[in-house]
Amino acid sequence: MYSVLRNPFGMLLVCGLFVSSACGGKNNPTPASQNLLEFLAISPTAESADYVKEKTQFQLHTLTTEQRHPRTWTLSEKVGEETSAGLDMLFSVDEDVATRLAALSKDPGPVRTLSAAIEKALLERRKIYVYGTGATGRLAKQMESAFWRPYWRGIDNALKSKLEPHLGGALEESLIGEMTGADRALISSLEGFEDLQLIGRLQLQERGIRKGDVVIEVTEGGETSAGIGTILGAHDQWKEAEGYDVAEASKHLFFVYNNPDEVLLPFERSRSVIQEAGITKVNLTTGPQAITGSTRMQATTIETFVLAHAVEDALGRVFKGLAARQVLTAGDLAQLGFAEDVTLEQRLSRFAPVLTEVKKAVPELAKLTQLEADTYTAGHFSTYFANIGLITTFTDGTERSPTFRLFPLDTVNEPARKALFQVWTSAKDRQAAWQTFLGRPFRGLQPDLYREPFSTQIQDEFLRKAALTSLDKAGNDQQNLYDFSFSGENVQRVGPKANDLGVMIALETEAALLTDAASDYERFTTLFQERGAKLGLVLVSGGPAPDWRGSASGAPFVHLRIAKMADPFGVDQQIALKILLNAHSTAIMGRLGKIVGNTMTNVSPTNLKLIGRATYLIQLHVNDMLMNDGWKKLHGEREPITYAEANAVLFEVIPFVAEKKAQGDEAAAEVAVSIVRILESLRQKRSVSLDESLAQLRSGGLSAYLASVRER
User: For this UniProt entry, which segments traverse the membrane (predicted)?
Assistant: First the structure.
């Protein structure tokens, strides 16, 4: 399909990505002397020229996470033919996570250091600050709001009173999960923020993190500017203090990432962390992602699993220490969820059986995947309902938007639904829903802290403008725009219509609610059935499957038999749900034509990294077609397009797609329109307009277009 080479690091490179003698690009005679951009009547914009020349540190095509995984090479074709086979293909890449964790469980190394640091911080009443961007930012929020806070809310006050003299009060507040752009960024990315080290430093300051606190920066690729600013800002607190101790700093500062050091070292910002002895590195590289560059999948899975179990391990040792001092009894330990002695090694080894259980669910999951894809194809919408699994469900849903260029979650001001996906939870109104979601009030950025530094310290005019614009969308007022409550108001405003789909997510104790006539699960089921909508259910629990009445009508019922044993945070169940939903949503998009092979051809280019990925994909797919023998026979030979040419076309398309999206056009996507614009112009030997290019995508997407071009 594509001509593939391996570079010295063993990574896949696709011929045509760069013009090189190794790919034979220079040997192809060009029938027309006309430059591509002249032919298309395009002059590179100032932003495009700046990106190609000045933003080389964000052109990340050499990273392992940006390569194509050989096991999912034909994913779009496979999932289109047979959904279950496509799901099997996706889950096969999660085996890379199992392999990495099997090795890590034998030698936890820096993960043990991390767990010890968390234990010490708890005993010394210090803060634990987990920071991330995008998918890892949602990971950080999950650490606080799905694991840490719910755990402490489940401990009775009498037991807390035993702990507080030794650990301090307000235990719920000791772990802070933060993401670039704060809580508003949970909904969708805020343009310009991710590319700024400055914002990471400022958020560290706003959250009151000081020398001596534990700072854990989690980054999928190891190159995220905002995250690097966070960890370097924390390190500066140590360096600027009297008597700087490198070894002591490294026991408090952690950088968790998912690419080999050797491929990150050419990037200055990554090198500044990797070569800093005062920061402990936790490298969890698993390999390429199931979808090229989609680090919401395997990279974030392993990072969530490792970090959550490291915190559990640390908390367990704290409690065991208090028991040894006779502060806690054996009964107390049981109530706290730490009756058993479980080592860090044992915790890390539990991923493989979790994955095995998820893979058993493929036949029933395929029914749900196909049902949801068919729902969207027919012009209908989905609503997910979750409580314990809310953040995991919400995260998978919101990440569909940038990954596959879908409309982001609708605001309450939308006159009609545009987003294919929405999520509800048990709450009476929007404020209560945020409290349920976060376990605390909504926390936006305080504009006064950021506006002056953004205005004076960001030298790049494009980034400065983007950051200041996004700052207006990051404050506390943003919470009023979104409502996730299963409330009468929401049911009336955006409730289900005939042939819509409702999917319920239940974990552990929620299994009993599925047959409780007074529960919101039963109310949700009744609502959707009465309105002629369809249903699906995903249950993760250790017990037997309940007799859910939706099954009588043939609704898909996916049950993962995973017990919550020696796992008081419920990490394994949440990870199982994450893996399942990631594959499910990806397979849906494959069936909708939003993936080509295993490439993210509908990526939304909202930051410098994603602009680079979009450019990469345009160049890759255009040059693949130009190298095709059938194409050359029909249309002649020409030189592969260059990176600069692909980028110039992309920047021409970006405002066009933005306008179409504002008009409600679901088909518009920057990469796809750019590829069609180039190929269709070359095929027809005239400059095809952007509207004509978009029209080519309306009947099956880019995958169908490329297949048809090979036959014409």
Answer: none
- Burial code (b: 16+ CB inside 10 Å, e: under 16) for 2-22 equals beeeeeeeebbbbbbbbbeee
Report residue 284's pLDDT band, with 50, 70 and 90 as the boundaries.
very high
Domains 77-92+357-444+471-591 and 108-349 share a fold: yes
Q: What does the pLDDT average to over 388-396?
A: 98
Rg (CA), the chain: 25
In angstroms, the CA 594 to CA 580 distance is 19
Asked if residues 687 and 661 have their Cβ atoms less than 8 Å apart, the reply is: no
- Class of the CATH domain delimited by 77-92+357-444+471-591: alpha beta
Q: pLDDT tens digit string along 45-69?
A: 999 999 999 999 999 999 999 999 9
Q: Are strands 4-6 and 12-14 parallel, antiparallel or unpaired?
A: antiparallel
- Distance, in Å, from the CA atom of 534 to the CA atom of 528, rounded to the nearest integer, reads 7
Euclidean distance between CA atoms 606 and 711, whole angstroms = 34
For range 563-585, the mean pLDDT: 98
Domain locations in the chain as residue ranges: 29-67+606-710, 77-92+357-444+471-591, 108-349
Write out pLDDT tens, residues 12-23.
344 333 333 333
Judge whether 376 and 592 are in contact, CB under 8 Å.
yes
Round to whole Å and give the CA distance between 568 and 591. Answer: 37
Task: Name the token pair of 476.
Answer: 């506390």
Question: What is the secondary structure of 180-236 as a DSSP string?
Answer: TTGGGGGTS--TTTTT-HHHHHHHHHHTT--BTBEEEEE-SSS--HHHHHHHHHHHH
| CA–CA gap between residue 115 and residue 118 (Å, rounded) | 5
Residues 23 and 509: their CA atoms lie apart, in Å, by: 57
Q: What is the pLDDT averaged over residues 458-472?
A: 96
Separation of alpha carbons 455 and 224, rounded Å: 21
Q: Give the pLDDT score at 424.
A: 99
In which element (H, E) is residue 505 found?
Answer: strand 501-507
Q: Tell me how many degrees the CA angle 289-294-297 measures, rounded to the nearest 5.
A: 70
Q: Given this model, what pLDDT does residue 11 score?
A: 38
Provide the whole-model pTM: 0.94
**pLDDT at position 10:** 36
> For 496-525, what is the mean pLDDT?
98
Contacts of 394 (CB under 8 A, 6+ apart): 186, 386, 423, 437, 484
Kindly report which listed range (30-44, 217-231, 535-549) carries the lowest average pLDDT score.
Answer: 30-44
Phi and psi angles of residue 413, each rounded to the nearest 5 degrees, phi first: -90, -5
